[in-house]
Amino acid sequence: MSRLEELIEKARKLKEKGLTTGEIADELNVSRETAMWLLTRATAKPSDVYVELNTLTSSAFRLRRIAEILADIILDVGEPDVVVGIATSGIPLATMVAQEITSEIAVYYPKKLRWEKEEKHISGTLSENFAKIDGKSCAIVDDIMTTGSTIKEVIEYVQNKGKALCAAVIVNKTGLDEINNVPIYSLIRIERL
């Protein structure tokens, strides 16, 4: 079975479990459009890059080392009051980064987790069970930045309530250095030539 066939099968199984297209995209580290294509193959295959992080993210020890590196990078910009982890995959990493920095932790649920093709007016939200960001400086943390739309959504949300110092990710698939004048830092940056 080819890697593409494996992804198509993973997407199908996730859909059978009841995950939305946005949740499937998050689980597979692909764009929403790619997740939709994996499920339907109704349109031309989108241009995307699949990134497998299981070797890093399945080990708390390895994830802690990545968190230490991201924390060090964030501290070059300043010391945030709050680290905002993006659900779902960014939460464990953000928790460890917040511990390294000795900052509070907040959790953001992006609109992509509830995204379906026909739904247009969904917004993301900050969890009420974690730190508030009102008037505070924040660092945004996620595992992979695929298109930049989720990071942009979180930056805009944070800027309406506090200050976004930066965003930090393991992999940046966009090649962007900043979004809305907020710097984006990554350990790995993928550039299409």
From TrEMBL:
The keyword DNA-binding applies. GO terms for molecular function: DNA binding; orotate phosphoribosyltransferase activity. The keyword Glycosyltransferase applies. Residues 62-171 form the Phosphoribosyltransferase domain. It comes from the Archaea. Keywords: DNA-binding, Glycosyltransferase, Transcription, Transcription regulation, Transferase. Gene3D superfamilies: 3.40.50.2020. GO terms for biological process: pyrimidine nucleobase biosynthetic process; regulation of gene expression; UMP biosynthetic process. NCBIfam families: PRK02277.1. Contains an N-terminal DNA-binding winged helix-turn-helix domain and a C-terminal regulatory domain (or effector binding domain) resembling phosphoribosyltransferase (PRT) domain. Belongs to the purine/pyrimidine phosphoribosyltransferase family. GfcR subfamily. This is Transcriptional regulator GfcR. It comes from Ferroglobus placidus (strain DSM 10642 / AEDII12DO). The lineage of its organism: Archaea, Methanobacteriati, Methanobacteriota, Archaeoglobi, Archaeoglobales.
